[in-house]
Design goal:
Helices cover 22% and strands 47% of the residues. By secondary structure, it is of the alpha+beta class. An eight-stranded antiparallel beta barrel has the order 1-3-4-5-6-7-8-9.
């Protein structure tokens, strides 16, 4: 019984240590404060042009992009939260050049982009991020995203 109690106590100490480490990490600076990268965070698409044509965001749909220092992920979902398209992979920032390499996704056109560099020129002013470029499938894009602030 003493051996079992020792094992249980050690397990509880490990769990408590992990919990304390998680709380400590939660207080670390995130995103821009930690990396100096203004692009790190969550963004909502507010306007877009593809091949020079204005693209209206359908009512009831939301297009979000999450950017970390090394990866990106975007998803389009409807008013019920059902994802209709998603894409993600690695990203790099070199000055005003932003490069995404899609590694996984679902939706129309993913196979044409998978594993290929998508190069954009970006500009961030305040809480707005605009980028322009030509996808590897030939589509030109102009998108404007707005930072999603924590509620």
């Amino acid at each position: 019984m003493t051996k079992l109690l020792t094992i249980v106590m050690r397990s509880l100490l490990v769990v408590a240590g992990l919990a304390m480490a998680t709380v400590a990490r939660a207080d670390e600076p995130k995103g821009e404060a930690k990396t100096g990268n203004k692009q790190v965070g969550t963004w909502k698409l507010i306007s877009a042009k593809y091949n020079g044509q204005e693209s209206k965001i359908p009512e009831g749909f939301t297009d979000l992009k999450h950017v970390t220092p090394s990866h990106f992920m975007w998803a389009v979902y409807d008013k019920d939260g059902k994802v209709v398209a998603a894409l993600g992979g690695t990203c790099t920032l070199k000055g005003e050049e932003y490069i995404e390499v899609p590694e996984y996704g679902v939706g129309e056109g993913f196979e044409q982009l998978k594993g290929k560099e998508q190069v954009f020129k970006l500009k961030i002013e305040g809480n707005k991020w605009s980028h322009t470029g030509k996808l590897s499938n030939g589509t030109t894009i102009e998108e404007v995203w707005e930072r999603v602030e924590k509620k």
